[in-house]
Design a protein that fits this description.
There is one protein chain. This protein has 125 residues and is an all-alpha fold. The chain has five helices and no strands. The chain is globular, with a radius of gyration of 16 Å.
Length: 125
């Protein structure tokens, strides 16, 4: 069962459009921050740490792949990624669920925005 799921996920990623890959990254980011917040609330420091570290990695990947010179909103989005990364580190180090909650609100909004943009782009194509 695990191998079938892994094979399916690998195929999904390999065949996904760039817009879909971006949405998938955001969806995983939302999941990681949600899991980190849930673990913080439950007092599970290790799980919270692991989830928030993975979320930080995703934000760094999003930031490093962003080509700020290619569109007017690029520098602003880069600033949001930088802020989000700093807040995720802060939430992790301080174990502050309030900071994690604010990160979750931000990544949820970003995910919804990119999902809507991907759907719009797909309908135009």
């Amino acid at each position: 069962m695990i191998n079938a799921r892994s094979t399916y996920m690998d195929a999904s990623i390999a065949t996904a459009s760039p817009a879909r890959l971006l949405v998938m990254l955001y969806e995983r980011l939302v999941l990681d921050v949600t899991r980190g917040l849930d673990a913080q609330r439950a007092g599970d420091v290790q799980t919270a740490h692991q989830q928030l570290l993975h979320a930080q990695d995703i934000v760094l990947e999003l930031r490093s792949s962003l080509r700020t010179e290619e569109w007017d909103g690029g520098p602003g989005l880069a600033s949001i990624y930088d802020f989000l990364h700093t807040q995720l580190v802060r939430a992790n180090v301080s174990k502050d669920s309030t900071v994690t909650e604010s990160c979750l609100a931000l990544v949820t909004d970003l995910c919804q925005t990119w999902r809507a943009a991907a759907l719009q782009a797909a309908s135009v194509a």
